[in-house]
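yo, HTH-type transcriptional regulator MetR is done. seq:
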Amino acid sequence: MIELRHLRTLLALRETGSLVDAAERVHLTQSALSHQLKDLESRVESPLFVRKTRPVEFTRAGLRLLELADQILPEVRKAERDLARLAGTEQGRLHMAIECHSCFQWLMPTVDYFRDHWPEVEIDIPSGHHFDPLPALAREQLDLVITADPQPLEGIHYAPLFRYEGLLAVARQHPFAGRGFIEPQALANETLITYPVEQSRLDIFTQFLQPANVRPREIRTAELTIMMMQLVASGRGVCALPNWALTEYLERAYVSAVKLGEQGVWSTLYAAIREETREAPWMQDFLRTARETSFAVLSGVRPADRDAESAA
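structure:
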């Protein structure tokens, strides 16, 4: 018998292109994922993909099951929403704030999809906040906050969305452009361009510069990512951004990117919500949609560690 978990695993394998990344996506070890796929192959009495190909090359049987997954899994999601409505649990309010200047690339498709499927839930992204979003969440002024900086607040739950790597954007002619990575001391003589937020909320400071007791020669701020890229491309500074925020500029060869340290600087993005709304079907569906959309539209992101939720 083919199970929904089998179909979800095959979709993850198609979307990621490798067993290692698919295992991360569905929160299984690679050996457990391989065992599940072999079990499915024995049930259908046919191999589903060609081993040791990247991206994964599916057989005719594998393609047929992927076609089935594309048909069935959206219907399962729709049925789950309908059941929530029948149970009378569909009403809700989703006013959110975003502590991430680059998040609109994946958040707007998430909101659009969610609004189409949960018209009963009031959605708003208020602008011009003059208060800290997380305390406002605790006071019920907001219902969800996108943040990479979880704070210990009573009654607040942090649902991990995905992990991302921070990269240093430099001009193509910059001496750093040919390096695989840089150490913190390399920024001591550089102008660092950042968004106009507290340094305590920027990974480049908290995870890279401050542990090494290094400060850049100068700090310059810019409101928009495109403004930062123009400054970087013209040689007036360097800036650290999430890998997905740099994708289009790297593809157009507008700037170059360098890893921060040999191991890189990785962070987790969270959706902060109140415990009282954590189990609401519409909130669970929003979080699931956010994760699925981010993996569909962003490059270089990874599933959050399985212990990230408890660690937050």
